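Comment thread on ticket #2218

A.B. wrote:
> Attaching the input chain for the structure job we discussed in standup.
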Amino acid sequence: MNPEPFLQLDRVIHEKGRLAIMSLLAATPSLLYTEIRDTLRMTDGNVTAHLRTLLEAGYTSVTKSLEGGRPTTSYALTATGRRAFAEYIALLEQIVAQTRPPSS
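C.D. wrote:
> Ran it. Output below, let me know if you need it in another format.
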């Protein structure tokens, strides 16, 4: 087995909570903070910490606005984040392919 794909996995994305957030955001243009939190059943502190890490890596963007007089915060993947996520998925596919027996 070639260990190289394992060594190339993006550690920012690889953590379970961040992988879940990246997966959600990859499937939609943007999500409200509360949608992310509620969908993943995470605590505010957990979601905030993971989103901060993703923001610092340049993988997500944040938009703050007012809707009906109430502040809202939404997140989206940046182009860098989409590229990093696609590369991460491709590496996972390589790892999975290595574990499959050869076709007869």
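A.B. wrote:
> Thanks. Noting for the ticket: DSSP finds six helices and three strands in the chain.
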